[in-house]
Amino acid sequence: MLNHFLDRRRNVFLLAAFAVFMESLTSPCLKIGSQNYETFSPGYFFWFGLAVIILGIYAVCWQLILERIPLTTAYLRRGFSYILLFVWSTLIFHENITIKQIIGIAVISLGMVVSVSDEHGKKNTSQNNASQ
After folding, report:
1. Is the pLDDT at 23 greater than 80, yes or no?
2. How far is CA 11 from the centre of its chain?
3. With 80 as the cut, is the pLDDT of residue 25 above it?
4. In the predicted model, what is the mean pLDDT of residues 19-30?
5. What's the CA gap between 87 and 84, in Å, rounded?
6. Beta strands, E only, the chain
7. What is residue 95's DSSP assignment?
8. Whole-angstrom Cα distance, residue 19 to residue 35?
9. Average pLDDT, stretch 26-40?
10. Looking at residue 74, what is its pLDDT?
């Protein structure tokens, strides 16, 4: 059933978005555990364990993704995790936003847009060549 779902390229990219979202949650879990609980306390182990479980889910998703799309294509999507970390740091931890951070996020976003547009260009070119 999962293989049938992942036969569609769009679903592979949805799984990639889910995987990156999950991976981005590990850093906030670790920070919450380390800031709010003593080392080796039950709360500390809860947040650390939650981060490990999330990374396990991410690893399984990532393996499924890599079976279906090239590593370079998949890895470029991980830039989204930096954007999500920026969001988590401001929403959860109320950290200050600086202009340098905004510029950095803009550069990462632009890089992802350029890489996706390049993939679509190659896809359209190969489809045109195949139809001729």
Report:
1. yes
2. 15
3. yes
4. 94
5. 5
6. none
7. P
8. 25
9. 95
10. 83
Count the helices and strands in the chain (H runs, E runs): 7, 0
Q: Which of 73, 81, 89, 115 is nearest to 31 (CA)?
A: 89
pLDDT digit string, tens, across residues 49-85: 999 999 999 999 999 999 888 888 888 778 888 889 9
Query: Residue 126 is which amino acid?
Result: S
- Which among 54, 52, 30, 26 is positioned nearest to 43, based on CA atoms? 30
Q: Which of 73, 89, 84, 86 is nearest to 16 (CA)?
A: 73
d(CA 81, CA 18): 10
- Token pair belonging to 42: 């039950």
Bin 79: left if φ > 0, else alpha if -120 < ψ < 50, else beta: alpha
Quote the pTM value. Answer: 0.76
Give me 37's structure tokens. Answer: 């609980």
Report helix, strand or coil for 7.
Answer: coil
